[in-house]
């Protein structure tokens, strides 16, 4: 699993979206949940709430203590052992947030088989990545990392630790926008694309042209907003102020 984790860590940005596309194409979404429009609407509402929870968790993590998860030359790497902020609540809070995003998107799609396979597959892949990271951190930080593991859960959120682990820290909204805007954009595009796919799959051709146009327009606006934020980021708009 560590070897698999190292491979997934290197190629996850390309591999994970491709896996989702393949799963969506292999398992079309159902028209309704148990032929019940209200139940279908409730399911979609829960899916959106799960996605928002994932984004909120990621924002909380980044806002208090950002950690670079990209590694070094696409390999697992860490210069420091970060235990502050949300990393004092959970050892992998960003990955928990990501899993909430994936769970919400799969639930929004609605195919029961896809939900089970998708969540199970991504849970396995993230567990492999975590094992690979843990092996590196143990080699690098030794007893300090072992002590950290004893105090902080791998996946659960020990919220009782939040006050202590964020003591003296200020929430940095500028950093949240600058570091996590692409994740928010990807989540919004995934939601819009899933809804378009559902309409195109089970609605008669031409019946929902207006709705599809609105969703397509919304997707274009998300793309424009993302490009604007990316441009401003390159211009230094979201850099942390330098203390004088």
TrEMBL record:
Keywords for this protein: Membrane, Methyltransferase, Plasmid, Transferase, Transmembrane, Transmembrane helix
Transmembrane segments: 45-67, 209-231
Principal location: membrane
Record-level GO BP terms: methylation
Keyword Cytoplasm: no
Top-level taxon: Bacteria
Membrane topology listed for this record: Multi-pass membrane protein
A GO molecular function held by the record: protein C-terminal S-isoprenylcysteine carboxyl O-methyltransferase activity
Subcellular location as annotated: Endomembrane system
One Pfam family from the record: PEMT
InterPro entries cross-referenced by the UniProt entry: Phopholipid_MeTrfase (IPR007318)
EC number in record: 2.1.1.100, 2.1.1.334
Name of protein: Isoprenylcysteine carboxylmethyltransferase family protein
The species this protein was found in: Ensifer adhaerens (Sinorhizobium morelense)
């Amino acid at each position: 699993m560590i070897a698999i984790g190292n491979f997934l860590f290197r190629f996850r940005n390309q591999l994970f979206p491709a896996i989702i596309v393949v799963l969506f194409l292999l398992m079309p979404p159902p028209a309704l949940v148990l032929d019940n429009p209200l139940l279908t609407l409730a399911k979609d509402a829960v899916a959106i709430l799960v996605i928002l929870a994932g984004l909120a968790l990621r924002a909380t993590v980044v806002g208090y203590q950002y950690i670079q998860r990209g590694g070094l030359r696409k390999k697992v790497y860490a210069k420091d052992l970060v235990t502050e902020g949300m990393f004092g609540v959970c050892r992998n809070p960003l990955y928990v947030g990501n899993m909430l995003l994936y769970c919400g998107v799969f639930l929004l799609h609605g195919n029961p088989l896809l939900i089970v396979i998708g969540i199970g597959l991504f849970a396995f892949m993230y567990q492999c990545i975590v094992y690979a990271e843990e092996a590196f951190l143990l080699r690098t930080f030794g007893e300090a990392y072992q002590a950290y593991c004893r105090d902080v859960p791998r996946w659960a959120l020990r919220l009782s630790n939040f006050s202590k682990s964020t003591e003296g820290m200020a929430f940095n909204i500028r950093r949240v926008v600058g570091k996590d805007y692409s994740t928010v954009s990807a989540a919004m595009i995934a939601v819009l694309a899933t809804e378009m796919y559902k309409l195109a799959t089970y609605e008669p051709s031409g019946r929902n042209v207006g709705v599809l146009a609105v969703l397509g327009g919304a997707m274009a606006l998300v793309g424009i907003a993302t490009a604007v934020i990316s441009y401003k980021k390159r211009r230094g708009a979201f850099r942390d102020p330098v203390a004088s």
